[in-house]
Amino acid sequence: MKNEFDVSPLKKKMIQEEYLKKVQRGKTPTKEKHLTILTGLPGSGKTTMSEKLLKEDKNQVVLGSDDFYALFPNIFELYKKYPSSLNSKEASAQEHDRVEDFVCENFDEVFAKTMAQGYNIIADIQTNDSLLVYIKIAQELGYKVDVKFMTAPKRQIETNIVSRHMQGVYRFEQALSGKLPQTGANIPHHFSQLRIPSSYVEEIKSVLKRIEKQGAGLEVINGINEQILYSGEKNKNPAEVFEQELNRDLSTQERLHQKSQLAKIRLLSKRITLRKESWKTTQRSQSRDYSAQVGHEKYYQHVINNLER
Domains in the chain and their CATH numbers? Predict the structure, then answer.
């Protein structure tokens, strides 16, 4: 039975063609093919690094799986209907599963097509076992592969995620009031990314240990200040370098920058209406962080207060 989450094969093909036309515009395939994989935790500076790399070589196609969240048909209407479960990526939610499937399937297909055509690529890919599969396939197609793993102290990452999310909430409310288009470009990033489970940290460490064994170049970089923390040194372990940086205390300069960010976040939070009807949770059981009794506004203030400690 067709429902609001069904996307026809024809529609998927059209979305992929439009996406490829946009990202490949002005680019040309090359004989010496190069794939740069940007990976790491959300809020660690991948977008900034991508922009820097593109300035250095404009003949690169930039691909990101997150691009396809905004391209899911009627995503704005779905976000209005299921704001909490889509935003928290609730594992049991049908809407989360269907959107995730759409994102993964379409990214895989456009990535494969772009590699088959021989373009130089910058790809934003999550740090899990799938990343190792992408490396293997690219190498089999004759690509030189480099991986740039972006990290930063946990407090900086959390602040960046909160800032990005709340800017998205503000745009979403502007769109609801007719001041911005009601499109996927104006929905918030997932707030669930604020939590970094220890199990995911261990998964990342495992992947980092295996990347170089596949013959790919690896750098661990603080994406906020662009400091290279690891670049293949034999006396260093990339997994340990990542974990140390993640748990590092902020420097005095970093604390001042974070305070400035938090001041902007507080000002923005006062501009967000957080309409009760538009932002109430869906009927199914929700995680405690998104409880209807707590309310989003109160939860945001709780998060900001914790970041200021």
Answer: 9-250 (3.40.50.300)
